[in-house]
Design a protein that fits this description.
About 35% of the residues lie in helices and about 25% in strands. By secondary structure, the protein is an alpha/beta fold. The chain has two domains: about 90 residues; about 150 residues, OB fold (Dihydrolipoamide Acetyltransferase, E2P) (Beta Barrel). It is elongated. The relative contact order is 0.13.
Length: about 250
């Protein structure tokens, strides 16, 4: 086989590899483990473009099958091969409790949100006795609780997330965390309230729970912060889309 054949074959296989990688993520609905749903369509279009490039390169390969060429420098394709190998070897998993300490709970999310005088849920949260938190209202509810905690003392709240504790967490508390994603998983920030319960030590890091409790106030670094006095918990499976997308 001539040198050009080997180079053309390498290009064809690399294009096929990247197409199959994106295609597998698309059909298994795993793209949102990496990017915001609003970007999914762009990636699907990219997969289609890669497939057309693969077909074109395959056609070129058939046309140059027996033609001689200059020496091929295979090292220039190593970054593409390395990327494919890493993508195939590493499992498709979501961010977990082990990374929360590195990013810091609530501080960055709350700071970013508080730059805007935006309170879409304030009227509803003031009127209801039970605040139900879901994927759609998580960011706005957390914004209200951390900016105006005194307004919601005594109200019931129901939400879900995974348990996180570190060395500074009191023994009767844990944080109930969700990762908030702006664009892609690289900018994901952990956010969630502290939960107070007598047997907090029995809740392991990373385990998912639905909880209900009463909102109370505590003090952290001289600032009022919300704490949920838990009345009941229920173990749940990790959500198929574990992130909160802004």
């Amino acid at each position: 086989m001539s040198q050009l054949n080997r180079e053309s074959l390498a290009r064809t296989l690399i294009l096929l590899g990247f197409f199959l990688l994106l295609f597998s993520l698309i059909i298994t609905d795993q793209l949102t483990l990496y990017v915001h749903p609003r970007i999914v369509m762009l990636i699907e279009m990219s997969a289609g473009l890669l497939f057309m490039m693969f077909l074109l390169q395959g056609w070129k390969l058939s046309k140059t099958w027996n033609k001689p060429t200059e020496e091929c420098k295979h090292w220039k394709y190593m970054p593409f091969v390395f990327t494919l190998l890493v993508a195939l070897i590493l499992p498709n998993t979501s961010l977990n409790a082990s990374l929360v300490s590195n990013k810091g709970v609530n501080s960055q999310v709350t700071t970013e949100i508080s730059k805007k005088d935006y309170r879409p849920l304030a009227p509803e949260m003031r009127q209801t006795d039970l605040i139900k938190v879901d994927d759609n209202n998580f960011v706005d509810v957390m914004s209200e609780l951390y900016r105006y905690p005194q307004e919601y003392v005594g109200k019931q709240i129901e939400m879900s997330g995974f348990v996180f504790k570190d060395e500074s967490t009191p023994q009767d508390q844990f944080s109930l965390i969700r990762y908030v994603v702006g664009c892609c998983v690289a900018d994901a920030l952990p956010s969630g309230p502290s939960c107070e319960i007598n047997n907090a030590t029995e809740y392991s890091d990373g385990s998912w729970y639905q909880i209900q409790g009463t909102i109370e106030n505590s003090e952290e670094n001289g600032k009022a912060v919300p704490v949920i006095k838990v009345t009941w918990t229920r173990p749940i499976h990790e959500k198929s889309s574990p992130y909160i997308f802004r």
